[in-house]
Amino acid sequence: MGNFANNQREQQKREERESTAREVLGKTLHDLGKTSFAVMVVGNMMVLFGAEGASLKQYAASVLGVILTFWFIYLGNKIIKHK
What we know:
By secondary structure, this protein is mainly alpha-helical. It has helices at residues 2-50, 56-81. The mean pLDDT is 84.
């Protein structure tokens, strides 16, 4: 009986650690999404509106920033919701 109780406690601790690790990884990916938005999209918008002739590279960096933002947030949600 004692062995069964120990196994149950170990399994519960393991599930708790995995849940915490998933939550932390998901939050980290959310933060990466917010950071990529701030750096690549908002930063490029300042350059685009301030410059007279915006280049294709600046537009491409803005689009890449939006794509990365959605991708990081999507991955973060998938990891947090995974059971």
